[in-house]
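Late entry, written up from scratch paper. The run itself happened at the end of the previous shift, but nothing got recorded in the book at the time, so transcribing now.
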Amino acid sequence: MNRTHITSVALLAYASLAQGQLIPFNDQSAWEAELAVRGVTPMTETFDGIESGDLNPGDPPFALSDFTITVEGRQGNAQDAFISGGRWNGELFPQTRHTAYVHTFDRPVFGFGQNFVGAASGLGIQIETTEGTVDILADGGYSGGEDGFFGFISDQPIREVRIVGSTGSGVGEIYDALDVVYAFSATILTNLTDARAFTLRGPLGLDTTSGDDNRGAVGFTTGARPLRITEIEVQVSKKRSQVANVFGGLHLSSGGNPGSQVASFSPVVVRSLDASLTSLQIEDPDFTLDANTSYWMVLDADDNPDSVFWSDVNVTPVGLNGVTFDGYRASANGGTSWVVLPEATYAVRINAVAAGPACVPDVTTTGATLAGQPGFGVPDGAVDLDDLGFFLSLWLGFEPDADVTTTGATLAGQPGFGQPDGVIDLDDLGFFISSWLEGCS
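Output as recorded:
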């Protein structure tokens, strides 16, 4: 186990990222501070004590704490790719030898970086993902023998990160990396354990024999910050071999039970007869959980008699990061009415990132009011005139980060209060000034 927590000095503040965008970083402190805005604490794989031997295309993925590394391309020479002495050693020669080093994570990540040695001395490297690519030469600003940190932050979850060649001089790049730093989203509700012992609860979906239309639900209440769910994991099992899907959605609480649905899950096939973790994704990637609001996560399945079961793991869920657990409900009539299940402990884990402000007016470091100054645009825990001036420049320039509330939502409790709406107007300015005058506790 070679993971170490990185402590971020930045306090939580608001930041907006365009969907599908990768933001490149060549400064690890700034990378950490931006992740802190999202309520995320990075992890580090140090490579300490690991001796991998030579890694080549066709070899099994080399497993580390939270991810694996796979080599792509043609067979390389001895010591083209290996881990030794607390560092990764790689040689990318796309035309003749290795073409990519693929990092596949156990869970989605929102940030990735490495401290590179010699990665801009020849061909250079790029970090490639499904959400875009960042280049150590064009985006990182490195050249020649310069060494240092290079990475990115994404607004969308990423499972696979590929290190590939860039377009610099030469036919290849020989480099080392001292570590891998990466950021998972935060868990806000869970009762999943490594043991995962379970018993069966009632089936999901329409039982075509009895006529019962069964659904299960787990409730939770958010804390002071809006959240964007990145992944929901449930443990389910099948009794029959036919294909079955699980699906459902998020519902607002109404009278202590699931009410109107506000988000849907994409259907997922349950493939195993044994209990297995199934990952659910919200169809709208920009859906946000409002602060201080109660929700129910409702689970349903295809119409089959006794087909899919939501596992009961005999562990009460724990709410984290300001979220509280509100109990379980079940329905046998498609959600028309619900009953309380005081003994239920359906297996669930919900991960999320912060989607809104904990401290709106802390937007830059004191003294850092001009681009290029250390701490420019990085919260520092102090709310002062520099923060006000920084925001005014954003607002006057119609910058996306000046969109801090919905038009007409200037009072707490109004729909859209503190939620961007794509419009920058006087309500955003008024919202910020009132927050600035109030300060942050």
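Residues 426-438 form the longest helix (13 residues).
(Scratch paper discarded after transcription.)
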